[in-house]
Amino acid sequence: MDLLKPTSANSCPLTPLTFLDRAATVYGDCTSIVYNHTTYTWSQTHRRCLQVASSLAGIGIRRGHVVSVLAFNIPAMYELQFAVPMAGAVLNNLNTRLDARTIAIILRHGESKLLFVDSHLQALAMEAVSRFPPEIPRPVVVLIRDNVGSQATNDVEFFYEDLVEKGDENFQWIRPENEWDPITLNYTSGTTSSPKGVVHSHRATFIVAVDSLIDWPVLKKPVFLWTLPMFHSNGWSFTWGMAAVGGTNICLHKFTADDVFSAVNRHHVTHMCGAPVVLNMIANSPNAKPLENPVHFLTGGAPPPAAVVLRTESLGFIVSHGYGMTEVGGVVVSCAWKEKWNRLPVTERASLKARQGVRTLGLTEVNVLDSESGLGVKRDGLTQGEIVLKGGCLMLGYLKDPRATAMCMREDGWLYTGDVGVIHPDGYLEIKDRSKDVIITGGENVSSVEVESVLYCNPAVNEAAVVALPDKFWGETPCAFVSLLGDKDGSGNVKASSDEILKFCRERLPHYMVPKTVVFMAELPKTATGKIKKFTLREMAKNMTPSMGNSRM
């Protein structure tokens, strides 16, 4: 057969922005966004995004410029996931839980031209911008007025709704010249002093968005409750994915467990996402009641303890577990459920759901490699190695950091995740730990995740994290930081002592895995993305004396 070459007709760049055009045609009269008393249809959302993109072009935003957004899950935040790249710019969602210093570092590193700011975060943004040296150009500030009391300042040059009203609804949005053109710049969660800027292409985000819809799966016109921050890897790609399926986005500025249950019942929610900490919050809510209709809950990040999965599902949530990271833009490994598993006891089903599973359709390959040989580990569920990935949804690299890019995306064709895992005989992958979180005690490797899973089975435990405590004899030993259910509401209704916690662990773990120390805290420290700050706990453990163990902090 003669070699045929691609043409302009069959090599159009892939981009998730086309989802919005289609949504306006197919689902134009259907509800796209609900926020308090505000409701939009898909045709209105499409028009508003075009108008904002038009205004951005009008004030000088050009192809490749970085535009930052600091906002909660409000309608403008959702619209900007489309409007910014429709102007040809690169979207930079900022974590709302960062401090002003870190935000300033990110804005400077990304050379942001424009900063959209939720009025609730105006003071934080202004402090960040004020940290710019005089010789460094500051980003132009656009205020999103989300409350009546928000005030303009000299640092605010535009208001969001003005950009909407003055923009051209017939604007021809700027398509990528190449599907490898960047569409987003997302910074890692900031657990180190220097968060890295992850650059994703139009192609990668298109693949992961479609892939996530297929894998979960998400049917046409779902009702999606935004408990996952949209700044977190662009809402795991579901910001664009909801347009693809004509879903309804239920936006919450901030929420409690009660808010979640209320929104689920009021809006007939079908799907939601969140870190295990959200699952834990729902499962431990004193006002939790069984749902009127089942809700699909996709969780990711640290493996959810089986006990938490069990409690959440008893309320009517259908929990699925996926694995991803900022560098892959969404879920790329998930626990694809087998029909035969439904016949297993509930505790076994919960344990299976805590596994990460198999690659999604959009990922080319996943493996667990031995650190010495570089070969795949035995599929025995025991032999550990580093999880590696390859596929079209992977990042282009780290902005201005070729060294870190080369360390992560190596010449052997794999992206090295830094996560330690095993592969079970059935081919399903399970994360055991971050490589830096493995505890080596007396020559034995202890998975902090496994110990934490046991701690979460204790009915008195609200949160748990296990880190290494330096030990002169053993090298290091497991140290458990725990918050109890009675502590969080200030009632002091503590239902377990350190001795009881240790006894509970001894009955369920090999002796070398049992924590030697238990530290009670009212609440465990969290990163800006809601993950428990193990690096902070490690530093606390290093500074502990033997008398500080089994104590309250």
Automatic annotation (TrEMBL):
GO MF entry, a single one: (E)-caffeate-CoA ligase activity
CDD domains per the UniProt record, alphabetical: ttLC_FACS_AEE21_like
Keywords, alphabetical: Ligase, Phenylpropanoid metabolism
Pfam family, any one: AMP-binding_C
Top-rank taxon: Eukaryota
Residue intervals of the AMP-dependent synthetase/ligase domain: 21-399
Pathway in which the depicted protein is active: Phytoalexin biosynthesis; 3,4',5-trihydroxystilbene biosynthesis; 3,4',5-trihydroxystilbene from trans-4-coumarate: step 1/2
Transmembrane residue ranges: none
GO BP annotation list: phenylpropanoid metabolic process
Cited InterPro entries: AMP-bd_C, AMP-bd_C_sf, AMP-binding_CS, AMP-dep_synth/lig_dom, ANL_N_sf
Gene3D superfamilies per the UniProt record, alphabetical: 3.30.300.30, N-terminal domain of ligase-like (3.40.50.12780)
Domain named AMP-binding enzyme C-terminal: residues: 450-531
Matches recorded under SUPFAM superfamilies: Acetyl-CoA synthetase-like
Entry's family note: Belongs to the ATP-dependent AMP-binding enzyme family.
Protein name: AMP-binding, conserved site-containing protein
Organism: Cynara cardunculus var. scolymus (Globe artichoke)
